[in-house]
Design brief:
The protein has 10 helices and 25 strands. The chain is α+β, with helices and mostly antiparallel strands. The chain folds into 2 domains: 145 residues, Alpha-Beta Complex (Adenine-n6-DNA-methyltransferase TaqI, Chain A, domain 2), CATH 3.90.220; 194 residues, Adenine-n6-DNA-methyltransferase TaqI, Chain A, domain 2. A 5-stranded mixed β-sheet has the order 17-20-23-18-19, with no helix packed on it. Strands 2-11-8-9 form a 4-stranded antiparallel β-sheet. A hairpin with a 2-residue loop joins β5 and β6. The two termini are 23 Å apart. The relative contact order is 0.12.
């Protein structure tokens, strides 16, 4: 039988984080409002605190299945995410509330999904003036939920958790493919490993004979220092161009994807999140599938992705397009390379929000091989980039299914019976 319970009755603790003393490195992770988005918890924007100089209370150390609720902030108030894995000792700052389920009263994972479905109700509990609204712990404790019996709670958590598991598996695969692409770029075009191997009389590793034959067996001097014989000193502008096509919101079809800087992850070539043109009020830039989106504000230089669809983006994103389709893999990995990011950092101008210009980006010097090697690199890496796009779209579909099922399962409109075995999970 479904029971109506107050949140304060089914939790061990509901407590706000404390104001940390931040440090640049070391210490422990501190999750903040930016770390809770898309109903999930991310460490990407976490900061660090020195727990020795400012001790953290025992109940403010995160535990598995803790639910985090953004309790202040315009646009972030009421966001909910649940901690499933904790990679390192972690706490939260004073803008985040920890809701810790009592396992004897509620299935912890079910409660996480239930609160994720109630963001509107949670946000409505906040008080204060415009721009200064805040969610108190007392109001949060009074939030009421309809709880089915524990076996049904577990079954619901299994169904929704299986979808989340698949989404996370896709993200892990994309991270691996991303790492492989960056490593191969560095090996071929930065460290020149195949050339060094041949110069030392060795067969280049992880490479067939036909590919190895395309690389020279010696180096020659250049303005960049020793580069493979026969290669030339070129610029980023030789393989990629700026595709700036400005557009006003009124000129864009409804439903068109919108990408802002906040949508782009750091240090990942895979774009997993985007919004809708309906939220856009000012001029933007068109992009198309396969373009490379580069955040040109200094704090966002590590945000470089390959677009998995057509859309529009912020004017603080440079839309980069390979000068030839066979240059896509080299262009994407070059723009995401650490040395290039450092160059953009040094070339950026402006006092409050420094930006790098496309003109400076395009002048970045690089060692360029014959087209045959760039084409060979693309033949290896472009399928990885394509698979990342496929995984992204599959994850979006799964997330839409999860978000459609979520309120129906929680409300009882759709019922499941325990036990549930799904997507290879154990019962």
């Amino acid at each position: 039988m479904t029971r109506i319970r107050r949140l304060g009755e089914i939790t061990e603790v509901i407590i706000r984080g404390a104001a940390p003393r931040y440090v640049e490195s070391g210490g422990v992770a501190v999750l903040n409002q930016k770390c809770i988005r898309n109903q999930r918890v991310s460490y990407e924007d976490a900061r660090r605190t020195d727990a020795e100089s400012r001790p953290i209370r025992a109940d403010r150390w995160l535990r598995q299945f803790d639910i985090l609720v953004n309790s202040t902030g315009v646009g972030t108030l009421g966001r909910v995410g649940q901690v499933i894995t904790i990679p390192e000792p972690t706490t939260v700052d004073s803008h985040v509330t920890i809701v810790r389920p009592a396992p004897s009263e509620v299935h912890p994972h079910f409660l996480g999904f239930a609160l994720r479905s109630m963001q509107g109700e949670i946000e409505s509990l906040a008080t204060g003036s415009t721009g200064q609204t805040e969610l108190s712990r007392d109001h949060l404790r009074e939030l009421t939920l309809a709880l089915p019996p524990l076996p049904e709670q577990r079954a619901i958590a299994e169904v929704l958790g299986a979808l989340d598991d698949k989404i996370e598996a896709n993200e892990r695969m994309n991270a691996t493919l991303d790492e492989m692409a960056r490593a191969l770029f560095k090996s071929w075009f930065v460290d020149f490993d195949p050339v060094r191997a041949k110069a030392e009389g060795r067969q280049p590793s992880h490479m067939d004979a036909a590919t190895a034959a395309r690389f020279p067996a010696s180096f020659e001097d250049s303005a960049l220092g020793p580069i493979p014989a026969g290669w030339r000193v070129g610029e980023v502008g030789d393989i990629v161009q700026s595709a700036r096509n400005s557009v006003q919101p009124s000129e864009v079809e409804p439903g068109t994807a919108y990408v802002g800087l906040d949508h782009i992850p750091r240090r990942s070539l895979a774009l997993a999140d985007w919004g809708d043109v309906g939220s856009v009020t000012s001029g933007k830039v068109r992009f198309r599938k396969g373009d490379i989106l580069f955040g040109r504000l200094r704090p966002y230089f590590t945000k470089v992705v390959v677009a998995p669809l057509d859309g529009i983006c912020s004017s603080d994103i440079v839309v980069c397009r390979p000068t030839q389709s066979s240059y896509l893999a080299a262009a994407a990995t070059q723009l995401a390379d650490t040395a290039f990011i450092d160059y953009c950092d040094a070339a950026s101008t402006g006092t409050r929000m420094p930006r790098v210009s496309w003109e400076d980006m395009s002048r970045y010097p690089m060692a360029l091989p014959a087209d045959a090697i760039l084409e060979e690199f693309n033949a290896l890496v472009e399928p990885w980039l394509s698979l990342m796009c496929v995984n992204t779209h599959e994850s979006r579909t799964l997330a839409e299914l999860r978000d459609t099922l979520l309120p129906r399962l929680i409300s009882g409109e759709v019922r499941v019976k325990a036990p549930v075995c799904i997507l290879g999970r154990d019962c």
